[in-house]
Amino acid sequence: MLVSLYDCFWNDRYWFPKEYSWADLEDSDGAIYPHPKDLLAVIPLTFVLIIVRYIIERAVGLPLSRLMGVQDGHRIKASHNPILESFFQTQSQNPKESQLSHLATQCSLSLREVQRWFRRRRKQKRPLLSKKFSEACWKFIVYFSSFFGGLFIVYNEPWFWKSELCWNGFPKQALKPAIYWWYLLEFGVYLSMMITLSFDVKRKDFKQQIIHHFSAIILIYFSYCANYIRIGTLVMLSHDVSDVFLEAGKMTSYAQWKNSSTIIFVIFTVIFLISRLILLPYKILYTTYYSSMENHKPFFGYYFSNGLLMILQALNVFWSLLILHMFYRLVIADKMPDDVRSDTEEQSTSDEQSETGQKKSWSPERSQTLATFPSPGVSGGLLSTKKRHQSVPAT
């Protein structure tokens, strides 16, 4: 049964137009092509990235947060109380008035003392601004490196300037080693983000982040295996460019650099709307719907990849509405856009700023964004894959 499922999963008809099969993507005449086994290298890479993130957040993020003036604020630790702690952990972190009164009676405390205990306990649980800053610093480095590194790799490719050319000769398109390593890095980044998501600062769009990361991982894998790599690189660039400014804006916001954060937010808004709502659908996704099938009939992979891209674009529209709401309230109405910030960040920032006497600044709230879209033989190991992509040029 497992053999049947394996054969069914790697059936040519699911991955390629009917004129092609896996045999057509075997390396030949000095040209290399993507193979599913190439992505095995992402397993160790993902754990390396998690370790690198841990080091950078502490060796770069924390010192930089102090240098930029990020203040965590003074937090008074809640006193030890087993009854209140049990209620906090198992029932509610923000109990109702009737529950507070009942707890006060149980603990022989006044209502005000119980309220104070829960307020202090909630503050203990919330992430410090320095932690948020360090997380944003890591993501800024990742997106900055990915965008400008990827731009350098594909800048001279004809299909970078004319996306219709992404489908010339599809799917038998040779793979350049530099693009392989960029793809692998992007894949590892999103896998590592998926693993650490539950430990990161919680956002109001946490569920959307899960959907986004899951879709991104599937699309990256599928696009590599089915050789949608050219169009995949354009999708990666269109998403990473705005994320550079998103994370930079978060850092300046946490540091209370109000003028800088406002300027960056305006730049971020413009770039996000242009890259996600104009360039992506009209210059990139349009070709995946129409140009990709000019010489082929639709097949399963066509519907599958475009379906996931539609999910990602729906998330882009969702985030665009939040960003436009923020832009209106911050830039036009000159109000703090509390209602579109994440629940966790809104509360913790408010508490910390009330302790330190700082004024609020904007805090761009959107999840990390995708990078792309979208076996037989998973044998051969990582060494042969590494050598193959280090040494053999594409033609």
Automatic annotation (TrEMBL):
CDD domains (UniProt xref): homeodomain
Catalysed reaction, written as an equation: sphinganine + octadecanoyl-CoA = N-(octadecanoyl)-sphinganine + CoA + H(+)
Ranges of Polar residues composition bias in the record: 359-372
Homeobox domain residues: 84-128
SMART domains: HOX (SM00389), TLC (SM00724)
Keyword DNA repair: no
Protein name, per record: Ceramide synthase 4
Species: Vombatus ursinus
Encoding gene, per UniProt annotation: LOC114029564
